[in-house]
Amino acid sequence: MINVLLNKSLISIVFLIVTTTCCYAEWNRYTITGKAQGTTYSIVYYGKDSIVTKKIIDEKLMQLDNSLSLYKSDSKINQFNNSEEGIILDKHLLAVIKKALLVNKDTDGLFDITVYPLIEAWGFGKTKTENIPDASGILSLLNCINSDFIELKGNYLSKKKPCIKIDLDGIAQGYSVDILADLLEQYNIHNYVVELGGELRVKGTKQPSGEKMKIGIESPSENEFDNQPFNEIVQLNKGAITTSGSYRKFHESNGRKITHLINPKTGYPQDNELISVTVYAEDAITADAYDNALMLMGLEKALNFVEKRKNIAAYFIYKNNTGTISTKASTAFLKLKND
User: Fold this and answer.
1) Which helix (H) or strand (E) is 291 found in, with range?
2) Which of 215, 210, 212, 183 shows the shortest CA–CA distance to 199?
3) Is it true that domain 63-159 has CATH number 1.10.3980.10?
4) Is 170 annotated as a binding residue?
5) Rounded to 5 degrees, what are φ and ψ at 9?
6) In DSSP terms, which residues pair with 239 in a beta bridge?
């Protein structure tokens, strides 16, 4: 048994693969690993030969960086952020923007890609700072935060204010996972797990056994920032799982933990009982887009939100009124666990 541990601090996801070496020589298991988008990736697929190579994967990831990365000075996203009025988008940025605007409407603005000025102000942008913004600074920045200030017409994205800047950190990795999954499909590979930065997409089964893929969700302790054993297991043969959590990116200021999850309506970091949200959806871009918004909602509102939608399921880790860490799952997520 080979355990691939996806290091996500409190919530981590492990893909359990059982290899069988008997009479099924035609099936082989291939693994490709590397670094991309400031994190690591791991691809496992079953096939007759190693038709998809690391070079093919890395070339695709480079194309995505050229479009979506804030750390490439000439990327399409930086071209938009540095523009006065807007730019013509490439196919990758266009696809992500379309999805982001849909989720923005569905979450009543809690998922908002124009939050980047606040991300920078709180010390999570390209330029790091230890000074947290004051109330007047936040109020000023909120004048540049709202997806209503951007407009998509065809493949042209315009901005109504020069100060508008977008950040795709809450959706780009999910989209990248989907693109890599689509790449495997183009090579007639239909049994795989694609993981990038802990975001996963699964298709098919382990071969030749036909077992479903197993995804393990970490069971937390009283200290939500400790790594924990994996007690919750879901079995999948199709779909995507992503996680958002207050533990993933944070820094301290005057003894206060400041999370990277910034509420675009208030301008302040997430401050509620939720520690993490794991989301299941048919594709990774959907799961990735919703997990941050659910974190900002708080447990009760987030659970009600998920139960009203057929396209997502969710598993929550939170602190209850006594300070004890507890878990809760939506109806559809419970079914994943019990299947």
Assistant:
1) helix 284-297
2) 215
3) yes
4) yes
5) 60, -100
6) 202
Q: Residue written as tokens 């054993």?
A: 229
106 labelled as ligand-binding? Answer: no
Q: Which of 107, 88, 131, 160 is nearest to 286 (CA)?
A: 107
86-269-176 Cα angle (round to 5)? 50
- Taking the C-alpha atoms of residue 12 and residue 217, their distance in angstroms, rounded to an integer, is 6
Question: In the beta sheet, which residues pair with residue 30?
Answer: 45
Query: What phi and psi values does residue 22 have, to the nearest 5 degrees?
Result: -120, -110
What does the pLDDT read at residue 122? 84
**Under 8 Å between Cβ of 139 and 267:** yes
- What is the C-alpha R_g of the chain? 20
Burial 305-315 (b: 16+ CB within 10 A, else e): bbeeeeebbbb
Distance, in Å, from the CA atom of 131 to the CA atom of 278, rounded to the nearest integer, reads 31
Count of CB atoms situated within 10 Å of the CB of 231: 11
For every residue of 95-143, DSSP letters joined together read HHHHHHHHHHHHTTTSS-GGGHHHHHHTT-SSS--SPPP-HHHHHHHGG
Nearest-angstrom CA–CA distance, 336 and 339 = 5
Domain assignments of the chain as residue spans, ordered by start: 63-159
pTM assigned to the model: 0.88
- The residue assigned the tokens 């979450």 is 107
Structure tokens at 339: 């299947």
The pLDDT, as a whole number, for residue 15 is: 47
DSSP secondary structure of 13-47 = EEEEE----SS-TT-EEEEEEEEETTEEEEEEEEE
Convert the pLDDT of each residue in 87-132 to its tens digit: 999 999 999 999 999 999 999 999 999 999 999 988 877 776 667 8
Contacts 24+ apart (CB under 8 A), 21-29: 24/207, 24/208, 27/207, 27/208, 29/207
Q: By the 8 A CB rule, do 243 and 13 touch? A: yes
